[in-house]
Amino acid sequence: MPISGLSDPSLFREQALIGGSWTDSTSGKTLSVDNPATGEIIGTIPACTAAETEKAIAAADSAQKRWKTRTPDERAAILMKWYDLILASLDDLATIMTVEQGKVLAEAKGEVKYAASFLRWFAEEARRMDGTIITPPQRDRRVLVLKQPVGTTAAITPWNFPLAMITRKCAPAFAAGCSMVIKPSELTPYSALALAVLAERAGLPSGLLSIVTGEAKEIGPVLTASPTVRKLSFTGSTRVGALLMEQSASTIKRLSLELGGNAPLLVFDDADLETAVAGAMGSKFRNSGQTCVCSNRILVQSGIHDRFVARITEEVAKLKVGNGLDPKNTMGPLINDAAVAKIRAHVEDALSHGARYASAPLSTDGRFVTPVVLEGVTSAMRVSCEETFGPVLPVFKFETEEEAVTLANSTPFGLASYFFTTDISRAWRVGEALDFGMVGLNTGSVSMESAPFGGIKQSGLGREGGHPGIDEFLELKSFHMAGLKF
């Protein structure tokens, strides 16, 4: 059933955007998309094949050759028009996202604004792609270091942030003078398609952006094998990221990979208790715990441990789980049945190894899962080494700073980490010792358009956002000029 209540129903599209045309798959096959809160079918999308993907790549290559000749001001103006249109459609975009993804409407509106912020940021960065001049030893020579667009690019985006993970990739690409073919998650395609409708209205040239809907196994290998696609940006699991690296090897493709995490959140005895509780709540339960930077392991020093557990359990009890369209609810459903099964497995494993409920016991109803707090958690449990991706808050106890840092770093992942302290010396020591691409001090949030986002180790390659975000889509060219007369 189509999404009701939209002020602009034309934002809801059930066709792919291939090379400037809204189209079905040549195979005639479609995929159904459901509402995780109700299980009802929202609509269908084309199950695109290699044929559609190759057509999108060819169109992107053609459009990019013209786009790269546009001035930075011209590119920036279109991105800013797109930014304005997204904010003007905030309510509709948020409704589409909540219906297909499940997050509560307030969070969906926050994501729409966050997604738009990347267009504004990179519209401004488009004007600052300055190269350098090198003075070599030879008197008659100068070297210009130019920054030029990579060319045709592709992105594979996840379901948990179906708007922001697109604009965080395509905004710098377009600002730099690149084109992009996007394969959104088949679980949440309608946000991407609505975004493309607004891009067309903003004046983005035909073919510069394509949205190829369908299954990753059909579309992904075409993107990775294509010599025309010079860069691939992916957000998702480490397992899939490794596969994409392997598939891209033959074309020596540039990669940006934002992969899995196992974020620790450390609370030291000297921390402000209420600040730590608020930070842990925001970090853990945002989007029902379904974010790559959610705190997955809560490490609390023994002196503050009992008070922290008591306070955060009180706050968790206030969360209201239900359909995200109902404003009284503060947490929506999980994305699918597999996600629910994983939560059950992690909790059961922890309890079987000696953990205890500090909150009410786990309860599930369809894809709705009550948030729980576990205490007495140890490194012998799955929650310590696997990314839970759901509303389970496991509390570990530690004694010393050294122990906490060792526990925090005992993971192959290195995306986000958080810690709470009022000791400025400890802040420097721990901040530098945590082996993660992003560290939050006295905050549970590390995501903004103006700061680089990304991980180390098995959490990925490259950075999105901030000043480095546009460099991911630029090549350096050394232009040697000789025979100059002085």
Characteristics:
single chain, 486 residues, alpha/beta, Aldehyde Dehydrogenase, Chain A, domain 1, Aldehyde Dehydrogenase, Chain A, domain 2, 2 domains, 7-stranded mixed beta sheet, 6-stranded mixed beta sheet, 15 helices, 22% strand, globular
What would you say this structure looks like, in words?
The protein is an alpha/beta fold and 486 residues long. It folds into 2 domains: 9-259 and 459-478, Aldehyde Dehydrogenase, Chain A, domain 1 (3-Layer(aba) Sandwich), CATH 3.40.605; 263-448, Aldehyde Dehydrogenase, Chain A, domain 2 (3-Layer(aba) Sandwich), CATH 3.40.309. It is built from 15 helices and 24 strands. The strands form 7 sheets. A 7-stranded mixed sheet has the order 14-17-18-13-12-20-21, with helices on both faces. Strands 9-8-7-10-11-23 form a 6-stranded mixed sheet, sandwiched between helices. The protein has a 3-stranded antiparallel sheet with strand order 5-6-24, with no helix packed on it. Helix 5 links the parallel strand 7 and strand 8 (179-183). The N and C termini lie far apart (74 Å). The mean pLDDT is 97.
